[in-house]
Amino acid sequence: MSPRTGSFLPLQHKEFRFFIVARFFLIMALRMLGTVAAYKLFQLTQSSFSIGLAGLSEFIPVFLLALYAGHIIDKSDKRTLLLKGVLIYSVCVTALIIITSTWFENNVNTRSPQVFFYGVIFCTGAIRAFTGPATTAIIAQLVPREVLHFAANISSSTWLLASITGHASAGFFIAWFGVHITFYIILGYVLIAALFISFIHKKPILVTTKTVKTWDSVKEGLQFVFSNKIMLGAISLDLFAVLFGGAVALIPEFAEKILSVGPIGFGWLNAAMDIGSALMITTLTIWPMKQKQGYRLLFAVGGFGLCIILFGISRIYWISFIVLLIAGMFDGISVIIRGTILQLTTPDDKRGRVSSVNSMFINSSNELGQFESGFMARALGTVPSVIFGGCMTLLVVIITWLKAPDLRRFEY
Predict the structure, then answer these.
(1) Number of domains in the chain
(2) Per residue in 152-180, is it b (16+ CB within 10 Å) or e — as a string?
(3) Which of 46, 121, 136, 212 could bridge to 57 as Cys pair (CB 3.0-4.6 Å)?
(4) Which structural domain range is residue 189 located in?
(5) Per-residue pLDDT reduced to its tens digit, 351-369
(6) Which of 248, 411, 383 is nearest to 325 (CA)?
(7) Would you say 162 and 170 are in contact if contact means Cβ atoms under 8 Å apart?
(8) What is the domain-level CATH number for residue 27?
(9) Helix, strand, or coil here: 7?
(10) Neighbour count for residue 314 (Cβ, 10 Å)
């Protein structure tokens, strides 16, 4: 079997196909939600700091609940837990439909309408603390272990393709229909995701002992991650790179005030990094990396930081788009290597807890990075804050290169 043929073997399994379709619509909906909410918040406040506060609103519940969520995921049926989470997401989107309606704007008197957005975003963060790790953990129950790394690549590619579609189409939909109608479209996508998840059968619980105390279970997951030097190094590298390289959070201000483009240009800028990631991940799914993955990971994160600096300097729309596209390609390399490490080195009975630790330190770093970008934009100015973030990313790579030789030499 050639690597190119083996890359698509997971798609022979019906439930994995249902999962991929559900993942596509759910991620597309959530990325659209983030894009539309950020756009609306900037329109309400004319400040990138409000977008940073939105990131903080989502980060807090994810960070606080992640470890407990991992314990719950490992002792639960992951399919049922995921389905419940997606259905609750639909309630949050319905709340945003109400908040952006003409009736609400005319009948609810408030000097700070953005507060309602922060409240809903906080709720979505709490839900994501459970659904994010559950999505990662359930993959091992949908395909045989010998094709698990291919399934992880397909899942990552699906995430990025959905993210591209969500970001770009959000800009078009805002321009054509407005924010309020766009939230109706997002609700439709979430319900489609719930439908396909319902086609998946309930899954057995893999935890070997059901009497373990919650805190002991949480500690076991943490100890596994911190004892695995390769996984810990990859997580730490990505954590700080995303934290300091969160220039995407400032795209609404770059689009309007620096590059002077409308909602459609804003949508494409938002999608640029994901387009690059999807191109790279699709390439690496068909032609997998065979050696020196550790070196490539470090060089990729360094290239990402350099692109962020160039984005901060640019005043020309097409240059900004291209450097974000290339940044996404570097990020795609990181996603593939880190995702494969997570799937191949995690025991089945610890997947929920390990995925939750990963979610707490990696996925939530997107929101914390969004807050950091908004805060630094207020403190230093928009352009200096982006350049600062790119420089810090390069510094993190240099430190990791010197302090984590096992990760640098890592191969699979």
Answers:
(1) 1
(2) bbbbbbbbbbbbbbbbbbbbebbeeeebb
(3) 121
(4) 3-408
(5) 666 666 676 666 556 666 6
(6) 248
(7) no
(8) 1.20.1250.20
(9) coil
(10) 20
